[in-house]
Amino acid sequence: MMWGMADHRRGDAPTVASALEIAIDQEHLGKGLSYAMLDALREAVRGQGLSALYAPVRPNGKADPSLPMATYVEQRREDGLPVDPWLRVHVKAGGTIEKIAPASMVIPGSLSQWRERTGLPFDTAGEVHVPGGLTPVHCHPEHDHAVYVEPNVWVRHLL
């Protein structure tokens, strides 16, 4: 974002775009909206005359926080498509998995904040597995601090 704003201030024209988020409410899952939304995003970027769309994808099927993202991303179904549903949407739409961003989102907080957010005790040093987390939260009781560092996967769509 900072590089893009600096380019804009200098008058440099963009050549690619980045998605920020596509979110679908729980009650609308399974209706094919992810494909429609991705198609609309790709078309909007193409309409701007840009050559590519980069999407930072949060693999929504990853259930084991201990499994490294690199290992998860390499898992394939019998048809050769990714096991992850959201990565599969991107690949089926023509996207290419480019690389893993190991620290795309960092959420630090005090132990009381983490207890309030999760209902978990956060009283032991080490890894805490929080439901829905892609990686463990690192708990440091001696410092009254815990931090979650979430990776994502960059997918490139040539337009």
Q: What are the main properties of this structure?
A:
single chain, alpha+beta, 159 residues, 29% helix, 6-stranded mixed sheet, Aminopeptidase, 5 helices
Q: Tell me the structural class.
A: alpha+beta
The number of domains = 1
Architecture (CATH level 2) name: 3-Layer(aba) Sandwich
CATH fold category name: Aminopeptidase
Approximate shape: globular
Element-by-element helix/strand order? HEHEHHEHEEE
The averaged pLDDT comes out at: 96
Can you say what the CATH homologous superfamily is?
Gcn5-related N-acetyltransferase (GNAT)
Distance between the termini: 21 Å
Contiguous runs where pLDDT drops below 50 for at least 5 residues: none
| Biggest beta sheet summary | 6 strands, mixed
- What is the CATH domain class? Alpha Beta
Oligomer: single chain
Radius of gyration over alpha carbons? 18 Å
The number of E-state strands comes to: 6
**What fraction of residues sit in β-strands?**
25-35%
Number of helices: 5
Helix fraction, binned, reads: 25-40%
Short description:
By secondary structure, the chain is of the alpha+beta class.
Can you describe what's shown?
The chain is of the alpha+beta class and 159 residues long. It has one domain (2-158): Aminopeptidase (3-Layer(aba) Sandwich). The protein has helices at 2-10, 33-47, 69-74, 85-92, 111-118, and strands at residues 16-18, 52-57, 96-109, 126-128, 137-140, 145-158. Strands 1, 2, 3, 4, 5 and 6 form a six-stranded mixed β-sheet that branches. β5 (137-140) and β6 (145-158) form a beta hairpin. The two termini are 21 Å apart.
